[in-house]
Amino acid sequence: MTLAIFDLDNTLIAGDSDHSFGEYLAERGLVNWQQHCATNDRFYQDYLAGQLDIIAYSAFALGPIVGRPPHELRQLQQDFLADKIAKMELPKARALIEKHRSQGDDLLIITATNRFVTAPIAEWLGINELLATEPEVIDGYYTGKVVGTPCYQGGKVIRLQEWLAGYAGDLNNSYFYSDSFNDLPLLGQVDNPVAVDPDDRLRAHAEANNWPIISLR
What we know:
Helix content: 40-55%
Largest sheet: 7 strands, mixed
Shape: globular
Number of domains: 1
Oligomer: single chain
Distance between the termini: 28 Å
Order of helices and strands: EHHHHHEHEEHEHEHE
Low-confidence stretches: none
CATH class: Alpha Beta
């Protein structure tokens, strides 16, 4: 079996779902617009710089859904997908997914963004296997805490190794598609690393190592 692994944000979709969800909450009046967006933007700049405190960010990102009833959150997920994520669809990304699927490859999304935001997106893309930063849920309610290793930078390698323990295959001939230099630890683990519309640092690394560089835009 060949495993095809995909980053999500700015790779399979034309935007960052985590940052967009924060903006969406502000647009819906569920958080204070000025305060929330300013903090959301600051965390996003930290991510772009490779300096994100993923635990602090996760607490911030999950804060607005803490204590909200499950039926309300399900509707919020559906609305966010329809109103924001659908507009980020990339036909070339869909075609790449289907190319791997038609070859009989196993498909996996691995993303730093939390599962609350990304599980509906993975389903929308037709990919069943998802590794994401895991929010704690007790009796159906989100606590704002993270369970296990956050799925960010080297944490993606840890989470993938844990997942592989229950997988019938291995990383032989595997692919990983990503846009971000934050994913260099995992890109270095696969046989076929591919830079997708990469940031400047990933582009430089890919060029220096003769990795393929593609665009799905």
